[in-house]
Amino acid sequence: MSQIRRIGLLTSGGDCAGLNAVIRAVVQRATYGYGWQVVGIHKGTAGLLTRPLEAQVLDLGQFTGGLLRMAGTVLGTTNKGDPFAYPMPDGSRLDRSQEIIEGFRELELDAVIGIGGDGSLAILRRLAQQGNIPLVGIPKTIDNDLGDTEVAIGHDTAVEVATEALDHLQPTAASHDRVMVLEVMGRDAGHIALSAGIAGGADVILIPEIAYDVEAIARKIDALRRQGRNFALVIVAEAVQTEDGEPVGEVKASGGVNYGGIGHYIGRRIAEATGAETRVTVLGHIQRGGTPTPRDRLMACSFGVHAVDLIAEGRYDRMVAWSGRRVIDVPIADAIRAYHAVEVDGALVRTARGLGISFGDA
Ligand code: F6P
Fold first, then answer.
1. Closest ligand 1 atom to Cα of 143
2. Less CB within 10 Å around the terminal CB: N or C of the chain?
3. The one catalytic residue among 15, 82, 143, 203
4. Which DSSP letter does residue 13 get?
């Protein structure tokens, strides 16, 4: 018999569509399936750093039918403030992990479900190990770069938003004889650009996993012109670098880069190389909103139910995952170790090449 009575639930890292659907699924499964209470922790682990703690009991009565359909997260989230090196006002860093563990104890939780990407799950796992907290993870990230799962919550909706952007750009590109460049998110992986590029009829897809040459892009655009096409669609992932190998964006105080702007660089270089009139759209955070697609909702429901069942079975330190048409679970440690970049010889890249789409490399 499970000794569980009360579980915690938090969303951590960048938000995405489908998080609310997971929250709803967890509360429904915990309530209907086991009669447990679910406590929603606000703003990821940040809700356990404040006193009083920022958390609330979630019950079915609070949920309107809208939650399943709503982007964002009603619990709030954060993608800053690693509790093991928390940025303090004087610029120093402080290990505040013990405060979070004490917050967890204060809420009298028997286990926690954390919904996050690789960075958040790594932090939650470290906290769980230090505080001996039973933890189950649910993968979410528009970037789809988590290992050991074919699907992460939010990616499908981001791809839909980016595809729709290409749908909107194509008629105006054709009306004005232009090359339209669309810059999409994805951090260091090109999954969004690749999938949306194929689905949205891009002529050129640039992803960080495949090195490009502006001359090759120009040749593709010239070939399209010779075929009688008066426009071209180019989709570029935010982590693609300049020809000199420089990432484009703002350097973060904590190190690393907040990507943004490679689309303008590519647009300028295409204009110089082809003489084409070029316009650039940077899609940005619009990809994180949007009404969750049916697929994201299905994944959210499957993951939420399975995560609660794992707790009931006493199987912790595991992340729910999707593989071969079913929900499974894997060690969190394996999932965060196995980074999932685009496979350059994979099915989608081969499909794109088969369609005559250029990656700017030939
Ligand atoms: O990881 C999700 C993501 O949306 C990336 O695709 C993007 O680079 C980043 O987060 C943006 O982060 P922020 O919301 O901090 O600007």
1. 6
2. N
3. 143
4. S
